[in-house]
Amino acid sequence: MKTTFKLNGRLVTWDCEPSESFRDALRRKGVISVRNGCDGEGSCGLCSVILDRKLVNSCQLLAVQVDGSEVVTVEHFSKDRTLSIVQRALVDAACVQCGYCIPSVVLAIEELLARNPDPNRAAITDALAGTLCRCTGYEQFYNAVRIAAKRLSDPAYTESMAPEFAPQLRHVGKDREKIDANYLVRGERAFVEDRVDANACHLLLLGSPYAHAWIKSIDTSDALAMPGVVAILTHENCPDKVYTTAGQGYPEPSPYDQRMFPRKVRHVGDRVAAVLAESLEEAQAALEAIKVEYEVLKPVLSITEAKAPGAPVVHGGPVSYVIGEPPAGTSVKGDEREEPIIYQFPLHSDPHRNLAASVADGIGDLDKGFAEADVVIERKYTCNRVQCTPMEPHVVYAKVDGGRLILHASTQVPWHVRRIVSRAIGIPELKVRVIKERVGGGFGAKQDIVLEDVAGYLAWTTGKPVLYRYNRAEEFRVSRTRHGMEVTVKLGAKRDGTLTGILMKVDADTGPYGQHCLTVPMNAVSKSLPLLLCDNARFEVKTYYTNLSPAGAYQGYGAPKGSFGLQTALAELAAELGMDQLELIEKNRVRSGSRIEILRSLGEGRPGAAVTLGECGLGEMIDRGKKAFRWSEPKPAADHPDWKIGRGGVIIQQGSGLPGLDSANAAVRLLSDGTVLVLSGGADLGTGLDTITAKAAAEILGLDMEDVSVISGDTDITPFDTGAYASSGTYFSGNAAVKAAENLRDKILAAAATVLGEDVSELCIAHRGRVVGRTGEVTLAKLAHMATQGEGHADLIGIGGFKTDHAAFPYGAHFAEVAVNVRTGDVKVRRFHAYQDCGTPINPALAKGQIFGACLKALGHSLYEEMLYDAEGRLLNANFLDYKIPSTHEVPDDFHVELVPVADEVGPFGGKSVSEIAVNGAAPAVAIAIHDAVGAWVREWPFTPERILKAMGKL
Amino acid sequence: MKTIIERYQRPSTLEEALAAKQADPGAAWLAGGTFLLAGDFRDKPASVLDVTRVLPRTITLSAGVLTLGAGATFQDLADAPVLPQPFKTAALGMNNRNTRNRATLGGNLGANKSCGSFLPLLLVLDAELETSSGRFPVAEWLAKPTGLVLNAIVKMDPARGTAYGRWARTSCDLAVLNAAASLTLNNGRIAGLRIALGGLGPHARRFPELEKLFEGQALPAKEAIESAVAPLLSPIDDLRASAAFKRLRAAALVADALHAATQEASK
């Protein structure tokens, strides 16, 4: 059917099938700023367009329905590649993180300001309520709207978005435009899905309907004969090797227990077959024609079931160790029909009893510690599974070009992708190039290789270009989620609050495969226990296989769950002791110069060592929070008798990459006009890492930000980096850029010394792009040009690598004030303040944005989010209608982030990690605040009204 | 394979729409599309009749009669100056503005979901629906939908106090429970009480068993209302909440609505 309408001011006539959604038609016609995050359920808003002056979802609109209408997309505001007032304001307010949702945000604000040029906070909340963003926490959008509204009448209006730091530096510590923000806010080509050629074939996966079953037979003959089908892959014709999908340093602390297609399926959605076809419809038709017979087995659906004697065995295959011996008493002989399990080194596991990994250690004498205590409490905290929900689901575009496999990937770990995919396919790494595109949210889920292996294999073996993109339900079921955990905390203390003993037991559920099975649960301990000084402390971590969805990395790793257990238990102990909870923290927390002995037993995949802390900003952060919340005064009164107010404060920590394990590298090239190109191995997931590496180069080479461009995460072009995980970005990749820029600076100075005839020691770099000596000066442009003219020196390229044994801990204090309705259990977060030490904030407003985003995510986990399974192990809420992530309406009324820097001696310009830590505070702070309000402890998250009423004894 | 829309028609008059429906009785009425077109992987009707240009969209209050065009979007309703507050609350309860800009009153009635935003309110106000097949009390039409809804007509009794509330897990969630109450006061006692609830069965409905409890009574305290109401409700467990919680929460909605309606009636 013909549909004629005005698109961004131009009359167009398109030919569309009656069934085609307007979203699909727009993308088909190249309007790629219109995106898809919820498969047409209308809950994400990423496909927004302005239709006849109203913001609507184009997924729930037929293309033929727009006939006669006027449609505006973000392209309308980007004429001649300039920015509109709204786009400029979003960039200035540091609102562009991954940028996947940002075109919709532009449209929502444009529509708002067109009908309401001076909107208040409620009007902004309403205007953006239909757009989901998982990165930003929305708070800075309010600033952007305010700036845009002011600039409508005063175009020169500006305001500061964050305080400035590091006065001695030109760029570091000052807000600079995020270097990818400009093109992202215009909705330009940036993501994997924007790179797909017209002839791409489509890959679809047949997932198991059962949580645990043998595949008795698969008949693909009918499906293979269907039109458009290129190839079908099953356990019968896939490579016969096992690997881990965890994008961790090799050799990984994760068992190799996953075959590309298993003979025994271990969770609902586990891989049964893949169909590659010329169109999505043909792939779907063929998928439905595959005949599979299953022998259904009893599934293991909880930690309790996994550890029960005689439990069904999730992995019954033979067990072997590359290095080391099996733990005593464990069985290694297994069922040969099952995939083998290969440990790279022992993880105290016993897979035939569903134990994927375990670790236990401690310091001091715990029995003595508890014996000396005046009060001992023991509490169990249950943390259900939560999903990362990047707005861009997992996606890869694989093709063969020049005899090599090219993967356009949305990943946090380009080099791990290259290694794992090349080994899975059986080709050398030189045959594989991974190009990390802009990533529409990663949050840990994209630290795993969840679809690149199949897509890569099929592209390599068929020679066809392969697009594979999860839909939202697959993203929920078969990408990666945070491990379910049960955290038991036993604390002993003297009357005065001095801790005499701490025991933390963590039981975790890794799902059917063991990626991150040791490290995520161990992180629950290693990022919470070292906050407290106690001579007698012990931890016991056990991770079990189950037949639930595969778990993996998620921002915070295991820390949010350990933090919830330990910080809440501490507050429970304070209540027992009749002490103020912050007073108890103060009594026992780490401080400047503390010797942290427990770190001896908390090495991550390697031996640990005790650490003597340098300066620690916790005291200052707690003080600022206490002052803001008027801690010493009575709580504010509620405005209605049904509502009670409560508040809570906690301390948190994380790391900055993995000392002794991570490695990052960068190169900086001086171009012939004196500008520079940074080649960074780091993987920017929307976090602003590329901006940090650009700043390092600009700062060190005396340039402005517009003199620097960054290419990152391309395994052919940029040097190696372990990837963006474990809070490594700023610290490792940022430091690599510093080293590379310093190396280039040294080479520039050496070249300049020759040109100027002065000693290197007499020379320095000066702004902008000059080398100044005692008598003369020369521009970087001149030096670079000389290298192209055969004059004196070679191309000026700096290289730098960074590794360290130094552990840099970011610390924080988070405070919550909640109102709880005593009749209904409803919770409103009235205030949430995050005080954080990220060392020198390299880009303060972006750092704040990272923290806002992490805090709101954590509030979502604490109050709303939970993966729910039925008795057969089927995920019940694999969509945004049933799994609720926060919208603008869930933003606390008073949402505040404050940076309290304590410079780190090794970090780039004194910087430390900033974002990941910020998911650790909300759950305990809110749980403590709920108790403060209504006197009931809620020990299972999310704290739903139902659980709160139960804890209050009302249900 | 899922069924897809193969035939799309957009009549420009009501007569054309009705003739097209007669010629193709299986065709589905399509308005805002937020229900019918939702979900890329859901089956869709093979044939649709787009009535967005046919349905009345005006909202008027004249001589105490409120007329709501079935084509009015939730946003039209939220913006209409003449609309009484409980309707605005119901319209704005759909917190997702993108959806409010498309979803219509007619679609809300046609979908007839258990927690349809306007259904409890229309039920307690004894609204009538003007349809292409005649005029029906809303309860009768919802029990047996027939014809295309053109307008909802509500006689507004100035003595009546009416209130509406909903519970959802988050703001942008679909309602899990919703409730409306409408009453007058006779010497300080509740009279002509009507209570309707959604989320407690396949469709929203009036609850005479609850109305009986309070008719002729002075307004009890909220706790008393809740403990009287809760035992009479039989919700089901689902993934959004347990039956036990829903019983308690729905009773709280009733208590809140009764109190708000009483306050409104005493103004």
Number of DSSP strands of chain A?
40
**Shape assignment of chain B:** globular
What number is the mean pLDDT of chain A?
97
Distance between the termini of chain A: 57 Å
Given the structure, what is the number of helices of chain A? 23
Largest beta-sheet details of chain A: 7 strands, mixed
Could you describe the 3D structure shown?
The complex is a heterodimer of chains A (955) and B (267). The termini of chain A are far apart. Chain A is an alpha+beta fold and 955 residues long. The radius of gyration of chain A is 28 Å and the shape is globular. Helix content of chain A is 26%, strand content 23%. In chain B, strands 4-5-8-6-7 form a 5-stranded antiparallel sheet. Chain B has a 4-stranded antiparallel sheet with strand order 9-10-11-12. Chains A and B meet through β4, α8 and α23 of A and α4, α9 and α10 of B.
Could you provide a short overview of the structure?
By secondary structure, chain A is of the alpha+beta class. Helices cover 26% and strands 23% of the residues of chain A.
Descriptive keywords:
heterodimer, A: 955 residues, alpha+beta, 6-stranded mixed sheet, 23 helices, 40 strands, globular, B: 267 residues, 4-stranded antiparallel sheet, 12 strands, 24% strand
What topology emerges from the helices and strands here?
The complex is a heterodimer of chains A (955) and B (267).
Chain A: E1 2-7, E2 10-15, H1 22-28, E3 48-51, E4 54-57, E5 70-72, H2 85-92, H3 102-115, H4 121-127, H5 139-153, H6 181-185, E6 201-207, E7 213-219, H7 221-224, E8 229-234, E9 242-243, E10 258-259, E11 264-265, E12 271-277, H8 280-288, E13 291-296, H9 303-307, E14 319-321, E15 341-343, E16 355-363, H10 366-372, E17 375-383, E18 395-401, E19 404-409, H11 414-425, E20 432-436, H12 452-462, E21 466-469, H13 472-478, E22 481-482, E23 484-493, E24 499-511, H14 519-526, E25 537-545, E26 551-552, H15 559-577, H16 581-588, E27 595-596, E28 611-612, H17 618-628, E29 643-653, E30 664-670, E31 676-680, H18 689-701, E32 708-712, H19 729-756, E33 764-766, E34 770-772, E35 777-779, H20 780-788, E36 797-802, E37 811-821, E38 827-837, H21 844-863, E39 894-899, H22 922-934, E40 940-941, H23 945-951
Parallel strand pairs in A: 1-5, 6-21, 14-15, 17-40, 19-20, 22-26, 24-25, 31-32, 38-39
Antiparallel strand pairs in A: 1-2, 3-4, 3-5, 6-12, 7-11, 7-13, 8-12, 9-10, 16-25, 17-23, 18-19, 18-21, 23-24, 27-28, 29-37, 30-31, 30-36, 33-34, 34-35, 37-38
Helix pairs in contact in A: 2-5, 11-12, 14-15, 15-16, 15-22, 18-19, 21-22
Chain B: E1 7-9, H1 14-23, E2 28-30, E3 47-50, E4 59-62, E5 65-69, H2 74-79, H3 85-93, H4 97-100, H5 105-111, H6 119-124, E6 128-131, E7 134-137, H7 138-143, E8 149-155, E9 161-167, E10 177-186, E11 189-198, E12 205-206, H8 208-214, H9 222-229, H10 243-265
Parallel strand pairs in B: 1-3, 2-3
Antiparallel strand pairs in B: 4-5, 5-8, 6-7, 6-8, 9-10, 10-11, 11-12
Helix pairs in contact in B: 9-10
